[in-house]
Amino acid sequence: MGQLVRLEQLSILGNVLTSLPETIGSLRNLVLLNVSSNKLKSLPESIGSCFSLEELQANENLIEDLPASVCNLIHLKSLSLNNNNVSQIPNNLLKDCKALQNISLHDNPISMDQFQQVGHIGLTCFSSFSAETESLVCKH
User: Fold this and answer.
1) Hey, which bits of 26-121 come out as E strands?
2) Which of 9, 81, 87, 92 is the most buried (most CB within 10 A)?
3) Residue 85 to residue 41: CA distance in whole angstroms
4) Residue 100 and residue 110: Cα distance in Å, rounded?
5) Residues whose CB is less than 8 angstroms from the CB of residue 99 and which lie 6 or more positions away in sequence, other chains included
């Protein structure tokens, strides 16, 4: 995969992938990455080297944590992690990813406490609760 350095869009949704190779960080021209509907427990640290990435979709996996390197994705506009096990996001994500316009974290065990400072950077977060889940969507 690391040899596909000109690749701009990669969609590998709906497989049974349990991990992504570290070589994904070699895809410096990648603008869209969709790894939804797999069995991923994490994203590789090298994801932060995909400097052109604007949209990351990793819905319906088993992801618990995001690597801190995600904060290096300064062109990231949309981050979608619905239906995972994410309980927190990297501390500097909202500060460092200045292009970020949409964050979608529906059906994750994440707390609104992490988003207390969100208003200061121009994001508005919407939260909804049901008996089973708490949903959170943030928009610029």
Assistant:
1) 32-34, 55-57, 78-80, 102-104
2) 81
3) 9
4) 19
5) 54, 74, 75, 76, 77
Whether the per-residue pLDDT at 15 is higher than 60: the answer is yes
The confidence score (pLDDT) of residue 120 equals 46
> For position 94, what pLDDT does the model report?
85
Interatomic CA distance for residues 58 and 122, integer angstroms: 24
Q: With bands split at pLDDT 50, 70 and 90, how would you rate the model's confidence at 110?
A: confident
**Beta carbons within 10 angstroms of residue 24's beta carbon:** 20
Question: Phi-psi bin for 37: left (phi > 0), alpha (psi -120 to 50), beta?
Answer: left
Q: What is the pLDDT of residue 132?
A: 52
pLDDT at res. 119: 45
Sequence-ordered list of residues with C-beta below 8 angstroms from that of 90, at least 6 positions apart, any chain: 66, 67, 68, 70, 71
